[in-house]
């Protein structure tokens, strides 16, 4: 005979919700059987969600599952279809439709940038190039790039042009687009930029792209065995720079 059912909700240390159901079964009192009880522990799974970056601006975000607009910084459940659009005067960079999966967004979250300027990120985000911007023959920052701004492209230290036809002078058009695509430079393998600055006793700071090639230095213990003692940087075909304590 079912005597009672008690239901209790509680939180454990990981904030998972557990539903504990106790079923107490009492035997026939005439047979003087002891009371028997059973219990079941059921763990409710935690719902996975995807978060929309809180720093998105000038963007309109729609939860297509519920056909409602949501704010930046909000979270949505898995299998939710979300669309992104921009406020007037802004243009979307990226895919307009994303799906929340168990592993997060299926694509990179897009951003909106102003249509009143050419995209400056293509000049600043690529480490293989450097750019100088000119507006009406005067140097300006390569940030909010107005139409008729000229960008002079050079390869960064340790890089070279992929081909001789690579465009090095670009112009921001009245449609807020560059007149040519910006082509990244390719790395110069094994070749370093030459400097006239003399070597200092304690060294001089350099960019990582100026000496990106590394070697391992080993000491031969016998004819067959070697021991790794240090690393070094290649600066020419015959010169490797390492620390003095590796050898003295």
Automatic annotation (TrEMBL):
This is Inactive serine protease PAMR1. One of its GO terms (molecular function) is serine-type endopeptidase activity. Keywords: Disulfide bond, Hydrolase, Protease, Repeat, Signal, Sushi. InterPro entries: Peptidase_S1_PA, Peptidase_S1_PA_chymotrypsin, SEZ6_CSMD_C4BPB_Regulators, Sushi/SCR/CCP_sf, Sushi_SCR_CCP_dom, Trypsin_dom, TRYPSIN_HIS. Residues 48-114 form the Sushi domain. GO terms for biological process: proteolysis. It comes from Zeugodacus cucurbitae (Melon fruit fly). It holds the Pfam family Trypsin.
């Amino acid at each position: 005979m079912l005597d009672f059912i008690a239901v209790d909700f509680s939180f454990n240390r990981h904030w998972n919700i557990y539903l504990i159901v106790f079923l107490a079964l009492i035997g026939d009192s005439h047979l003087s059987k002891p009371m028997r009880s059973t219990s079941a522990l059921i763990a409710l799974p935690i719902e996975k969600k995807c978060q929309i970056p809180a720093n998105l601006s000038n963007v309109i975000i729609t939860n297509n599952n519920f056909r409602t607009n949501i704010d930046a910084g909000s979270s949505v459940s898995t299998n939710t279809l979300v669309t992104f659009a921009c406020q007037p005067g802004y243009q979307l960079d990226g895919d307009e439709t994303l799906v929340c999966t168990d592993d997060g967004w299926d694509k990179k979250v897009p951003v909106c940038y102003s249509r009143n300027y050419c995209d400056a990120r293509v000049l600043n985000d690529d480490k293989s190039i450097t750019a100088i911007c000119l507006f009406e023959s005067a140097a300006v920052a390569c940030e909010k790039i107005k139409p008729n701004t000229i960008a002079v492209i050079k390869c960064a230290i340790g890089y070279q042009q992929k081909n001789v036809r690579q465009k090095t002078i670009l112009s921001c058009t009245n449609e807020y687009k560059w007149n040519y695509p910006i082509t990244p430079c390719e790395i110069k393998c094994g070749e370093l930029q030459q400097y006239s600055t003399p070597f200092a006793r304690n060294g001089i700071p350099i960019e990582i792209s100026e000496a990106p090639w590394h070697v391992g230095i080993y000491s031969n213990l016998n004819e067959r065995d070697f021991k790794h003692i240090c690393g070094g940087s290649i600066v020419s075909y015959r010169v490797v720079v390492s620390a003095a304590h590796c050898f003295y």
